[in-house]
Amino acid sequence: MATRTVRDTTAESSSSIQTVQRAALILDSFTVSRPHLSLNEITARLGASKATAHRYTKALRAANLLRYDDRTALYSLGPQVLTLAAAARAALPIVTAAEPYMDRLVQTVGQTVVLSIWDGESPTVVRSADNTDHLIRISVRVGSRLDLATSAQGRVFCACLPPEQVPALAKLLRRSPGLREEVDWIRDHGLSVNSPSENGLHTIAAPVFEGEAIIATMAIVGTSVDVPRQADSTMARALLEITKELSQRLGNNGHHTEAG
Fold first, then answer.
1. Are 156 and 223 within 8 A, CB to CB?
2. Quick one: CATH architecture of 92-249?
3. Given this structure, which CATH class describes domain 6-83?
4. Whole-angstrom Cα distance, residue 120 to residue 117?
5. pTM of this prediction?
6. Residue 210 falls in which region: left (phi positive, over 0), alpha (psi -120 to 50) or beta
7. What is the pLDDT of residues 12-41, one digit of tens each?
8. CA 227 to CA 235: how far, in whole Å?
């Protein structure tokens, strides 16, 4: 019987690590601005031969982590990534911490409450708590990516994140003086109430801080009739109170960093 040496075991371990690193590098190549890549682009990113890149893409397709479009000859992330992303979002500490506060806010205001985090380019919904007492329920899909300039949550992140973390902000502000005024208003009042209504729905949002940095936004979503635009409305005050309590639990003392 052949015996395995330490050198053999080390070589296998190094090979396994390289396999994982290369697979992760391929998956990490896809971004919101570049959701489709050719095999040549993946090969360049991998820094290996085309045959090696093809072998990896084939294995990732078998695991449903990549999909391939025969018509365009382009790769994109596969459905299994969505399952993993949902599991990752559910495990975020902020989701666990925010759940009881969100549920309490739902009971107070009688509307849907949504929690979003910053994914590097835009807000992404990580939890949605519906009001089950309503005949017609408003539900926001977990995993939804929200518009940076028009959503209430996006505007709050624009106001509170350091500028270097929002690369698109400078261009947006140059194109829209109104957005600049809105961002300044949010910094002064601590919430967004003036975001555009969409499909008869309106959203107001406030930041949640961990220490001095924004970690999430909490928002109330309802019909344009039910959700007022006044910063001193009962609903807006309830939102501010809840987000302040949650922020204090996360170590915020009332001070925070914001975009300049």
1. no
2. 2-Layer Sandwich (3.30)
3. mainly alpha
4. 9
5. 0.70
6. beta
7. 556 678 888 889 999 988 887 789 999 999
8. 7
